[in-house]
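Not sure how to ask, but would you mind making up any protein sequence you like and the tokens describing how it folds?
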Amino acid sequence: MRRTWLIALPLTTAFLLAGCGGGGDPLDSGSGDTGGDSPAAGTATAPAPDGEGGEVVVGSANFPENELLAEIYAAALSDAGVDAPTKLNIGSRETYMAGLEDGSIDLVPEYTGGLATYLNPDITATSSEEVLADAKENLPDGLQLLQISQAEDKDALVVTGETAKELGLSSIADLKGKAGDLVLGGPPEFETRPNGVDGLKKVYGLEFKQFRSLAAGSNLTVQALKNGQVDAANIFTTDPAIEENGFVVLEDPESLFAAQNIVPLISKDVVNPTVEEALDAVSAALTTQNLTQMMVQVVSNGEDPADVARQFVDENL
């Protein structure tokens, strides 16, 4: 059934979003559901407590970390007696917001800063509390944000250790007067979003020699940075490739990249005490540290996100 509310912002034609680790990304390529439906992290569905469990279709953007988080949500909901089928690897924020609007999905793992900027390109808030408040203020009527987690995965501008040493880079501000000779890599949306190329120019006065569209945070981005095909790249801070390759995350003294706490974005139509309690428990258990470790399992070790999600839920909830 189509939702009665409408997304206030026009949908862009870009179906890509940046992600952490290998595979596709929501700031990346793919115009639709490239993954397909799957059971909720391989778990059996128990009877709903007091018959209130219901069904929640869990979606994800098309990058590994968001898929992992969706599997965690689905596993926790299933354990609580909620029928929680998944629709993974849908696409970018522009794409999965449309899925929430048309009712094909009910829930996605979100990032407060990215969502707030999507809903309000003129946002000036940077702290976790202010960013969350701004996002809530601008949400479409049919959507709700539940409890945020302390886990945070931020956009970052990353260079190799060699580039940082050669150019004397420790912060984004250090690129002033040097960016004109450098190629910047990132997801297609990074070229036009307020905290992307436009933001780097507006906030830091940077104009790069070229922008190269990549599946940010994926293996392609990492290889492009390692091989010198790009000189700087937009990579998420929980990506294991940063530490594994000795990359340098440039500091962001002007807070171009706002707080990015992970939070469930859900349709009000499916919220009930059982659903809310299960998802709040996930948020309470998630930390940046354990999320980063799970990304090592998924990206570096090649483990199935559903298996990693099940382990996390069994050990923490």
In short: Residues 36-153+259-316 form a domain with the D-Maltodextrin-Binding Protein; domain 2 fold (CATH 3.40.190.10). The CA atoms of residues 57 and 105 lie 5 Å apart. Residues 1-51 have pLDDT under 50 and may be disordered.
